[in-house]
Design a protein that fits this description.
The complex is a heterodimer of chains A (248) and B (322). By secondary structure, chain A is an alpha/beta fold. Chain A is built from six helices and 15 strands. Chain A has one domain: 3-Layer(aba) Sandwich (Rossmann fold). Chain B has eight helices and 18 strands. Classes of the chains: A alpha/beta (248), B alpha/beta (322). The complex binds flavin-adenine dinucleotide (FAD) and adenosine monophosphate.
Chain lengths: 248, 322
């Protein structure tokens, strides 16, 4: 089984978000970039398939060379090879088109992406890939078992979960649950050393449609001060929620 | 030209978000001087959408399409788009809809703008305001393709009544024979309880509650309010609550009218996922808990004392206002 894990290089969850160039660009100065958390769960599940079922695991990103430390980290965690499509990722449609080309050329059986990138929260790349490639697709995936080309997957739904059956080739939009938080791996010294020997191929982008463009950004308006209510005066709280906030 | 609204339903009834997307679709259709058409799946009273400005409902009656299947639904919607020559597709932000949205965008080669929180800023090109960076920012985004998909954030735009003459037509998409690829084996779902995605009020508990045995506090409060229950990430990682209740940047997003956080410190990743809720109430023993900075109302106090008392007060309030 050949697996491709699609990795989006995103600001660490603790990052302060600022914009620059007249509020037209995300300000990446001083920001630490990491593997998108949803993709990290997917990568960890892929490592399980590698270790238990002999799968080969490649990782791919569409991004500039600033994404390479993140890809090295994925190699240090245990991926066999990395691919970077040398293009600034500005929208889901063109990113998916790049990834679809890689997938067609190298006939992967399983493509693990994330439910969404935590930066632009598009939540569209895996679905677009599925449509472009005509592959099966399970989103918000929280459980994945593969036997030959038969797949049993679990997905999160509003208010519960659904078990699905499908076949390879398959695209997954993964998230926590695919593996547990405690299963995530921190690269060790040996992994980091080995990652240096592994291939990080850089390929040129193909022409692709742009689905949308971000023209400008802004930050939310600062919040007013909290209204504190004494713990022994909860009738007042109920009154405020009813008459002032009008939420009950 | 027309605006097509994709509506969600359950057991033959529209979900609340169907009226939100219908309201958005009508508003956009007015700006574009065209009509808003809706597609519905096995709904008993499709004409209800006439209250929200929809002038035509394509209602599918097909037992094979009773349960959501992302491929089948995306196919049905794209056939409706072709039939009605729709250029703008309005969809919700539910888990199922987001599953279908990417497939639809890929099929149509369309720009998709999710998490939209306001009416379009411009229609030529279509320009939208959406949240990015998990509610830590907003982007102004234009759609660059002929057909555009607009994902409306829940609870952001609201439901607006606009009584309109509505015709209901039966719609029979041709799905038969197409390989759906993915089939449902079983669904494991709490019924009769508000879900985090739909609820007006969400009551959420954190590590401050000390253990799963204390969750009746959260559940009892949720019950008086008709609210959904949620939790912080460590609570689900510790196995105190199911993962499906984990909210925040890496969990489910919350955009309810009222979010009540009990024993939750307000870490940046938690706030990122819940900040788009309209009103936030925080109950925490620590006056310096970061959540108070993001809250509208706060009680500094012990959840084990405050919550039972609050439940009593709410019961009294309900009795008086019944
Ligand atoms: C990559 C990454 C992603 C993450 N994603 C998420 C996410 O999506 N969602 C999320 O929630 N977290 C997320 N986190 C974790 C986050 O950083 C915090 O660790 C977590 O939110 C803390 O949970 P908590 O507030 O329940 O617990 P704590 O931080 O331990 O806070 C407990 C609070 O309870 C209060 N308390 C104690 N006793 C009482 C009492 N008797 N009555 C009232 N209050 C009391 C305390 O004062 C304290 O403020 C993420 C972390 C990382 C690194
Ligand atoms: N630039 C990118 N390079 C590689 N994979 C990506 C990229 N952007 C998004 N993805 C994948 O698609 C998933 C969903 O991303 P998005 O549609 O951007 O929210 C991510 O979790 C990744 O797996």
């Amino acid at each position: 089984m050949k697996i491709l894990v699609c990795i989006s290089n995103v600001p660490d969850t603790t990052s302060k978000i600022n914009f620059t160039e007249g509020d037209t660009k995300f300000d990446s100065s001083g920001v630490q970039f990491v593997i998108n958390p949803n993709d990290e769960f997917g990568l960890t599940r892929a490592m399980w398939f590698k270790e238990k079922q002999g799968a080969t695991v490649h990782v791919a990103t569409v991004g500039l060379n600033t994404a390479e430390p993140t890809m090295r980290k994925a190699l240090a965690i245990g991926a066999d090879e990395a691919i970077r499509v040398d293009m600034e990722p500005t929208n889901g449609l063109s990113v998916a088109t790049q990834l679809a080309k890689l997938i067609k050329e190298d006939s992967y059986d399983l493509i693990i992406a994330g439910r969404e990138s935590i930066d632009y929260n598009g939540g569209m790349v895996p679905g677009i890939l599925a449509a472009q490639l005509n592959y099966n697709f399970v989103n918000t995936c929280i459980g994945l078992e593969i036997d030959g080309n038969k797949v049993t997957a679990t997905r999160e739904i509003d208010g519960g979960k659904e078990t699905l059956s499908t076949k390879l080739p398959l695209i997954v939009g993964g998230q926590k649950g695919l593996v547990e938080e405690s299963d995530l791996r921190i690269p060790n010294m040996r992994g980091i050393m080995m990652a240096r020997q592994k291939k990080l191929n850089v390929v040129a982008p193909v022409e692709a449609n742009t689905g949308s463009s971000d023209l400008a950004f802004e930050k939310p308006a600062p919040k007013g001060a909290v209204k504190l209510v004494e713990a022994n005066n909860l009738s007042e709280l109920v009154d405020l929620l009813h008459n002032e906030a009008k939420v009950i | 030209m027309s605006v097509l609204v994709y509506t969600e339903s359950e057991n033959g009834k529209f979900k609340k978000n169907a009226f939100e997307v219908a309201s958005y679709g009508f508003m956009l259709a007015q700006e574009l001087k065209t009509v808003a058409i809706a597609i519905a799946f096995n709904v008993e009273n499709p004409e209800e959408l006439g209250n929200f400005g929809i002038s035509k409902v394509l209602n599918i009656k097909d037992a094979n399409l009773t349960n959501f299947n992302a491929n089948a639904y995306a196919e049905a919607v794209s056939q409706a788009i072709a039939q009605e020559n729709s250029k703008n597709i309005i969809i919700s932000s539910s888990t199922d809809t987001k599953y279908m949205a990417g497939i639809l965008a890929g099929k149509l080669n369309a720009g998709y703008c999710p998490n939209v929180v306001a009416a379009p800023l411009n229609t030529e090109p279509l320009t939208l305001k959406r949240t990015v960076f998990s509610n830590k920012g907003f982007a102004t985004t234009s759609i660059d393709t002929d057909i555009g998909i607009i994902g409306v954030s829940s609870n952001a735009f609201g439901i607006n009544e606009n009584k309109t003459q509505t015709e209901v037509l039966e719609f029979n998409p041709n799905i038969e024979g197409s390989d759906l690829g993915v089939s449902s084996v079983s669904i494991d779902k709490v019924t009769g309880k508000a879900t985090i995605a739909d609820a007006d009020i969400v009551v959420s508990g954190g590590r401050g509650l000390k253990g799963p045995e204390n969750w009746s506090l959260i559940e009892d409060l949720a019950e008086v309010l008709g609210a959904a229950t949620a939790c912080s990430k460590p609570v689900s990682d510790l196995g105190w609550r199911p993962h499906s209740e984990h909210v925040g940047q890496t969990g489910k997003p919350v955009s309810s009218n009222l979010y009540i956080a009990i024993g939750i410190s307000g870490a940046i990743q938690h706030l990122a996922g819940v900040n788009s809720s309209k009103v936030k109430l925080v109950i925490n023993t620590d006056p310096d808990a970061p959540f108070f900075k993001a809250a509208d109302y706060g009680v500094v106090g012990d959840a084990f004392e405050v919550v039972p008392e609050l439940i009593e007060k709410l019961k009294e309030f309900k009795a008086q206002n019944a």
